[in-house]
Amino acid sequence: MKRLAALTVLALAMTGSVAQAASCARDAAILLTPDGREQRVTVEIADDAAERAQGLMYRKSLPPDHGMLFVYQSPQPTSFWMKNTLIPLDILFFDARGVLRHVHSHARPLDLTSLPGALPGDPDPNRMFVLELAGGEAARKGLVPGTALGHPAVPQGDAARPCD
């Protein structure tokens, strides 16, 4: 019986029908989509004012499955611009629980337009995490509002996707 159970789990894992356990790490964002798919992105962390101000400026490329995670000390209104950013980016805005609330796709390089972290009428426009990915990556990975961010920086007591 144990062998049958083990073979069943192995078969399901090979077909992708069982979610793989993934532990949180500082250099990785684990993203659980509303339809149950888990995506992993290697991240650089920007968690102080100087790092957040620099962001991904002057980079000439950003590989797939890589990004920058901006971490704020507390939830607050956020907006980004693309000053000195040479590549198109997807900018994903998360609340304090790590729930994706807004996606700005394909932000234009070198554009000085302010890109707010919340749409008009959002009942809770404060954001605590922002993830920048190469333009088009959010759609390719199926990252839509409701996606949950798993990362050690997300307060675990109320995290939408707690760390393992």
Automatic annotation (TrEMBL):
Gene3D superfamilies: Protein of unknown function DUF192. The keyword Ion transport does not apply. InterPro entries: DUF192, Saro_0823-like_sf. It comes from the Bacteria. Keywords: Signal. Residues 1-21 form the signal peptide. This is DUF192 domain-containing protein. The lineage of its organism: Bacteria, Pseudomonadati, Pseudomonadota, Alphaproteobacteria, Rhodobacterales.
